[in-house]
């Protein structure tokens, strides 16, 4: 049997999309939050002498309120300055409160092993090996650290952290420290009757200790060294006029760019071809940036307008219901890709008379079919679930199966497994953990 291999030539026409660098950047710009956009534009201006950023500040015009004495209130003075790190905060206290002794040297050594949450990450045995100090000296040094601010700093575990905070709080229940010290695991496991029996106190006192513990912080150092989330710059604004919704782009905080025409005219007088080529390239970069920023704003505005058309009830009904809405619905309506809608809503915010909301929060999966006939969103069922749990008898909380039955009575037909999933999403504990004794 002979093997034959035949070669032939043929033309084949295919079509594919090639993403240029500029197109990739345009897609990225749409994904930027307002803060990221400001940083991007400022960086572009640093690299392009023809771009001038004229306004990248978020300003509000308002009449300043006054105190009873007639003095103006400066709210900026009320914003906590958390730029100092936990380490710096502790070092300052050590130098102010403790004399320059060998014990202070050990304190400074231990501070270097405290993490951002305020916990000591080295054992006393390891510290003794590295410093040559004995156990008593190292324990004394740790005790000095644990007397510093914030309360709970220097703890070696969560139990000790809560005990340190309780010890310094005059408003703590009388038996709180004892319960934490001797019955921490049982308290966490909500075995309150067992603890009450051992301490010969009513169960309600143990419950009061548990409630008090919820007011303490498990990470005493986490508030230092960060200002994230201090404010949000919304991309669109919604105003309600009668039964009409008006949405507009938020120009406050939006960086505005201008073309340096005088500089361009001056430099184009040069006869150097390289200079002229450079200027033409930078001019095109400016035009691209201007067009891309305009497209970003237009896309976000169009998406926001489409969202409003679907979620009108959210703005006019006091219960704030959301209709089922997915990215595909908006994409098909605006004739754009789903990924474009995703980029347009993630990290973008809408300012409304009820507050500021992320655009993606207006999307909700459909749950159905329902006996009520209409499509019901998951958020609507979650709201109903939360209301039922809020009104239950805390001494006899509803089981998940009972919640299924109560939701069915409201024409919401979902499984017990779905109830458990929604309950966990709402951070509602199981019935055994919701039980109260008062």
From TrEMBL:
- Provide the protein name: RNA polymerase sigma-54 factor
Q: Which residues form a coiled coil?
A: none
> Which terms are listed as keywords in the entry?
DNA-binding, DNA-directed RNA polymerase, Nucleotidyltransferase, Sigma factor, Transcription, Transcription regulation, Transferase
Pfam families per record: Sigma54_AID, Sigma54_CBD, Sigma54_DBD
Q: Which GO terms describe its biological process?
A: DNA-templated transcription initiation
An annotated GO cellular component: DNA-directed RNA polymerase complex
Q: Which GO terms describe its molecular function?
A: DNA binding; DNA-binding transcription activator activity; nucleotidyltransferase activity; sigma factor activity
Q: Does the keyword Transcription apply?
A: yes
InterPro entries assigned to the protein according to its UniProt record, in alphabetical order: RNA_pol_sigma_54 (IPR000394), RNA_pol_sigma_54_core-bd (IPR007046), RNA_pol_sigma_54_DNA-bd (IPR007634), RpoN_core-bd_sf (IPR038709)
Q: Which residues form the RNA polymerase sigma factor 54 DNA-binding domain?
A: 277-436
